[in-house]
Amino acid sequence: MKKLILSMILVGATSLAFGQKKVVRSAEKNFKSGDLATAMSEIEAAIANPETSSDPATYLLKAKIQLKMFGTDSTNTMETLAKGEASLATFNETFEMAGSNKEEGVGKEIYEGDILGVPDNLRPYSLETLKNVSYDKALERYNEGEMDMAYEFFNLSSEIDKTDTLSNYNAAFIANDLGRFEDAKKHLNYLLEVPDYNGKINVYYMLIPILSTEEKNPEAAYETVTRARAEFPEEKTFAEFEIQLLLQLNKMDEAMAQIQEALKTDPNNTSILLRSGYLKEKSGDIDGALADYKKSVEVDPNFYEGNYYAGALMLEKSRSILAELNSLPDDEWEKRSKSMGEEANQYYTDAIPYFEKALELRPDDTDIMSILYQVHVILKNDAEAEKYNKKLIELLGPNWMDR
């Protein structure tokens, strides 16, 4: 009698297990036919049953059903994204259950290569399929101008494969454009970790300004630009970035050393000449600074900053001469006023063409117009002064001097 009861129990258990496997087979059939709601209901029931809940293949089928739900949802909203994220989570859970082995069994199925362009029923519905479907959705949203959702789908694609350079670059580009700088940094750093990626120069060009300008973190930016220079020593712009960051960090001696080194190989680099002049001006070498500013304009007559800084420094030299003259005792003033006045006026005169060129480059700059007006008043060039006065009245109103 005991044997009979035991046999009945075993038969019952076998029937139950067989029944649950039948549910899994039914779920797979409905998955293939496209009845995804029924397939999901069945696979959830199989997962809830102890007889089939420990089988990684059961969870793999769930991940595939979730993936197909994701792919067939053409609304491409946050709700769509949640389906893709759920599929990814199930794939990851399944892989861990299967022993995290990509070489055989369920783990090999999870990482099976996707076959693009074949009928749907021949796709493996693997992690790579999920990545490709997410990428396609990102492109669809991008083409529709839905940048936030385009980012989310590119991000999902990149999280599936952090070495996917297209997904990461697109995600970084969009995130940066949206002002999502932390997200942009994440993808840019992923790209820097891809050994053979040939677009790293562009990655650094995007990452350094995020760190220095948007996050106001010159230390991190300097560390990054140092890395960039080590990888791309021929890229001259990185040298300019490094000098600018050294200036931000108030490391004047190091900045000047880098400037001198950079000018040895690139003596006509206007940006570096400008920074050299700035450092010399800060250190009190006014003549040296003026020479650098002038050279930058000789190299490129349309270099706005070079023109403006050269003109401004000439005005400063004029003011210094006049301040020195006014501090002299009366008898000394009588002796030197003519020569020093002429010297100051010459600097005012020499500054005019630099400011005129700067105004030519930025024709609506009322600050430069005001400077030119004042210089011409000092030099008693009445017609020229009135010309700028009329422009300023036209742009700022009759009380522009009170501004």
Would you kindly provide a written description of the structure presented here, covering whatever features stand out?
The termini are far apart. By secondary structure, the chain is mainly α. The protein has helices spanning 2-33, 36-48, 56-72, 78-97, 105-110, 127-143, 147-160, 165-178, 181-192, 200-214, 218-231, 236-248, 252-265, 270-283, 286-299, 304-326, 330-361, 366-378, 382-396. The longest helix is centred in the N-terminal third of the chain and has 32 residues, at 2-33. The model is unreliable at 1-18 (pLDDT under 50). The radius of gyration is 35 Å and the shape is elongated. α16 runs antiparallel to α17. The protein contains 19 helices and no strands. 77% of the residues lie in helices and 0% in strands.
Order of helices and strands: HHHHHHHHHHHHHHHHHHH
Q: What oligomeric state is this?
A: single chain
Q: DSSP helix count?
A: 19
Which term fits the overall shape?
elongated
Number of strands: 0
Name the poorly predicted regions.
Answer: 1-18
Helix amount:
over 70%
What's the overall average pLDDT, rounded?
91
- The structural class is mainly alpha
